[in-house]
Amino acid sequence: MKVVILAGGLPSTLIEEDEKVPKPMAEIGGRPILWHIMKQYAFYGYNDFIICTGYKGEMIKDYFMNFYIYQSDITVDLQTNEIVIHRKKTEDWKVSVVDTGLRSSIPERIFMIRQYLDEASFLVTYGDCVSNIHISHLVEEHKKNRKIATFAVTRPTGRNEILPLGKDGGIDFTQYSSYSPDAWVNACSMAFNVGIFDYLDKEQVIGRSVFDRLARDNQMASYRHQGFWMPMETIRDKTQLEEMWRDKSAPWKVWDD
C-alpha cells in the first residue's frame, strides 16, 4: 500500500531565514519533519511513498536525489570528480516526488497522483504532523469497515476543527458543532480506497464538499487514536518537538536507530 504525503502549499514560517523552505523540510533534530513521518510509516512496512509537492518542490527532489550521499561520509576527488562513499547508510524506501502545484487543494493533489497508484487502497498523510498512530491498526480498521475513507481522529489541541463523530464511528457533517465535550479532530492520517476518485474532479477545489458527499453516502469512518499527535504550525510547536527529540522522549519515534 502506497503512502501519499501532502507536502505542497506555502513556505514555512518556522525558520527565521530570508530564504524560506517548504514546511515539510523544516527540521527536527537535524532532519526534515518529512523524514520523521516517513520513518514512522516505514516502521510499519509502508515504504513506497508519493510526495505531492508545491512551493519549492525542487528542494524536496534534491533531498531525495542526494539522500544516499547526505546520509554517508564521502571523499571527493575534485580533479576527476570521483566520489567515494564511506559508511554507507540509506533507507529501504521508494520515493516518487510529484509537482502538484502551488495552490492546489487536497482533493486536487490526490487527483493528480492517481496514475501513480496501482493498488485498491492507499494511505494519505500531511507533511507537517507527527504522531505515534499505529498505522497497521488504521489499515486494519479501514479494511474492516469497507468504507471509501477512514480518518484517524484524536483529541483536539485547542485550535482544531471539531469532527462530528457518530456512536458508530461514522462522520456526519449535518450534526456539526463547534464544541463537544467528547471532541475529536482530524489527526492528518487517513486511508482511502480508489472509490475516492468517483468523488474527485480536477475542477473540484473545495475539500469540505468532498467530505460532505462521502459522509452523506455513509462512506466515511474513523479510527480513534488516543496517543500522541502534534502538528508543527508555529515556532513554539517546532521548539517543543525539538526539545522532545533532544531529550530522547519523542513519542513519534517508534523505530530503532
How would you portray this structure in words?
The chain has a single domain (2-246), classed as Spore Coat Polysaccharide Biosynthesis Protein SpsA, Chain A. 25% of the residues lie in helices and 26% in strands. The protein has seven helices and 14 strands. The chain has helices at residues 33-43, 57-65, 67-70, 106-112, 135-145, 207-216, 235-246, and strands at 2-7, 27-28, 31-32, 48-53, 73-77, 82-86, 94-99, 121-126, 129-131, 149-154, 162-163, 184-193, 220-224, 229-231. The chain starts with a strand and ends in an 11-residue tail after the last helix.
CATH class: Alpha Beta
Q: What is the 3D form?
A: globular
CATH superfamily: Spore Coat Polysaccharide Biosynthesis Protein SpsA, Chain A
| Main sheet overview | 8 strands, mixed
Strand content: 25-35%
User: Care to count the β-strands?
Assistant: 14
Distance between the termini: 24 Å
Give the integer mean of the pLDDT values: 87
Radius of gyration in whole Å, from Cα? 19 Å
Report low-confidence residues grouped into runs of 5 or more.
174-179
| Count of spatially separate domains | 1
Order of helices and strands: EEEHEHHEEEHEEHEEEHEEH
Q: Which range best describes the helical content: under 10%, 10-25%, 25-40%, 40-55%, 55-70% or over 70%?
A: 10-25%
Total count of helical runs of at least 4 residues: 7
